[in-house]
Amino acid sequence: MQLRARLLTIVASALAAIPLTVLGPAVASHAAATPSVKAPAHSCATAETGFAACKAIVRTDLTPLKSVAPNATPSGYGPSSLQSAYNLPSSTAGSGRTVAIVDAYDDPTAEADLGVYRSQFGLPACTTANGCFKKIDQNGGTNYPRRNGGWAQEISLDIDMVSAICPNCHILLVEASSSSFANLGAAVNRAAATSGVVAISNSYGGSDASDATYGSYYNHPGIAVTASSGDSGYGASYPASSHYVTAVGGTHLTTSTSSRGWAETAWSGAGSGCSAYNAALSGAAFFDTGCANRAEADVSAVADPATGVAVYDSTAYQGRSGWLVFGGTSVSSPIIASVYGLAGNTGSIDNNYPYTHATSLYDVTSGSNGSCPTTQWCNARVGWDGPTGLGTPNGTGAF
């Protein structure tokens, strides 16, 4: 409960300081009808020992739209904005590659909701029938676990982000029987054993843990495994703190008058830290992380719910369904996994690769996620820092 309270305080203060118009007129109009802006809410409960919580945060101050009128755009960033912000070859790359999404429990409307999202934004259909979309349980079959509305929101967010970043990629959704690390890990192993998978996104986390216990689930050479760094500010989270993954932090993303056309600062909720258990990446030795062990994050992408992304989810949770706006490092993890899919290099690289190609990233140099013993663990700066890692994608060169 203390962790959740801290999260809500962090995000509420971020929202209070940021104009809602950053997401466009649609967001501003919804906010104007709301007397006060409520803090966003996590889709999943706080993780218990041995279990993980998803890192999706839904905007609760906006009225969900059940449908969008012709020629209108849902609130939140869509594919064209995200592709522009990160200079991505989304229209030309990714064919023949599969990005896997691992989550807990069942989203019974995942494929139908994906169809709504892709249709809205003019993306090619991705269905079971045409071979683009596949949904399996952690054993590789169709004996899906029980429905869970909160994790269904997470699933919709994840598969929509793969669609936004790599619309030519295939999508594999693997549903774990529960949110225990054992079941989620079994689902990761299942994804890794599936032909065509080049990247696996894990938009969940728990407290820092040892690779000696869970590392075999995430150690898959030739496949990029990404993990959300967390949404509660400073403090290491597993599996982001694993030696075997790309830990993905979060930013606040807005348009700007710069030549890039976009600007980013560290998101106040982005997880960061120094693992008490796991070995540092060899590539990190070229940067002053201030951590003798594994430091997180490695890279980052948009995660602030105040500058969140559009998602369609029809499996109601706490009375909310339809077009929603999401933030959290649940957004950034599948974005980075999909950039790996666009790059197509995972067969020959490991998670040190961004450290030797940091010039192909947008360095995020301002913003903070709180206070910490070592300045760079929680304050953005030139070079590596905890909340944003080495920076955000500028094309696929760092992946």
TrEMBL record:
Residues 1-31 form the signal peptide. PROSITE patterns: SEDOLISIN (PS51695). GO terms for molecular function: serine-type endopeptidase activity; tripeptidyl-peptidase activity. Keywords: Signal. The lineage of its organism: Bacteria, Bacillati, Actinomycetota, Actinomycetes, Kitasatosporales. The keyword Signal applies. One of its GO terms (biological process) is proteolysis. This is Peptidase S8. Residues 76-399 form the Peptidase S53 domain. It comes from the Bacteria. InterPro entries: Peptidase_S8/S53_dom_sf, Sedolisin_dom, Tripeptidyl-peptidase_I.
